[in-house]
Automatic annotation (TrEMBL):
<dbReference type="InterPro" id="IPR003439">
    <property type="entry name" value="ABC_transporter-like_ATP-bd"/>
</dbReference>
<protein>
    <submittedName>
        <fullName>ABC transporter ATP-binding protein</fullName>
    </submittedName>
</protein>
<dbReference type="Pfam" id="PF00005">
    <property type="entry name" value="ABC_tran"/>
</dbReference>
<keyword id="KW-0067">ATP-binding</keyword>
<comment type="similarity">
    <text>Belongs to the ABC transporter superfamily.</text>
</comment>
<feature type="domain" description="ABC transporter">
    <location>
        <begin position="4"/>
        <end position="231"/>
    </location>
</feature>
<dbReference type="InterPro" id="IPR003593">
    <property type="entry name" value="AAA+_ATPase"/>
</dbReference>
<dbReference type="GO" id="GO:0005524">
    <property type="term" value="F:ATP binding"/>
</dbReference>
<dbReference type="GO" id="GO:0016887">
    <property type="term" value="F:ATP hydrolysis activity"/>
</dbReference>
<keyword id="KW-0547">Nucleotide-binding</keyword>
<dbReference type="InterPro" id="IPR027417">
    <property type="entry name" value="P-loop_NTPase"/>
</dbReference>
<keyword id="KW-0813">Transport</keyword>
<dbReference type="InterPro" id="IPR050763">
    <property type="entry name" value="ABC_transporter_ATP-binding"/>
</dbReference>
Amino acid sequence: MSIIECKNLTKFYGKHRGIENLNLNVKKGEIFGFLGPNGAGKTTTIRTILGFLHKTSGEGSVFGLDISNESMQIRKKIAYLPGELGLYVEMTGRQNLKYLLSLYDVDVEWDKVEQLAKRLNFNMDKKVKELSKGNKQKIGNIMVLAPDVDLYVLDEPTSGLDPLMQMEFYKILRERQEETGATVFLSSHLLPEVEKVADRVGIIRDGTLVEVSTIAELKKLSLKRIEIFTDEPDVIVNQIPEDLIENLMIKESHLDFVCSTTNLPNIFQILSNAKYSDLNITSPALEDIFMRYYSIKQDLEEEKKEEE
């Protein structure tokens, strides 16, 4: 059964494209990661399927209800965390939460709110104007996780949270989903976060959904960016086989490149005899993953043509 379904859904802002011919199917009871760089169309998609924006063309439904004509009924059955949550700055976190939770059509047990605040290490009695970005985000996290609903729609829910709180948030989210059997639509530009919790992932780029994959399939694209600080960048590059690295950039005192995690042991073996002052290993930008994805896809298509 599909909870969210879109067929050729399109939204233009005047002459500017938000999303175009987007086809999407989110199944009941799954955590669906909606992944894309900033500006790809994630928020436009969410706001259109929830009826906050009027579609330009195409079709969309949530719970089988039409997104244009039945958006009020849709929103009664969901919990939604927007990317930018408006809060009353002169009120405390507690006061904001009591007000926001009163807007739901379902009753919310305050004990559950207290438990969530404790797990997220959030002091509800400070005024919002005194809070950091991360603590303001916790108000939204508590607001969206407290009610029992059929669908949770989360737009960049961990923005501003430190790594420990990000981990705790996703732990709670998974627990809530398993307890209630609810569906989760999770928007993010951070692959390492999404892959920890999602069952499937949709990749959006330039307003179009380019692929839907399981996490197992997506992990085949697992990459790391390596930055090496050295006085001999050319010497090190000449020691590394070209087929092990991608997106190579060489500067005067350092070099950086992207490689598959499966190639890391070979890279480390080569670097064990190299001269360098520092080395950083990070998760690459989402655009690097997209380029890797498109490269693999193109190779597969060319192989298929050769076989034919």
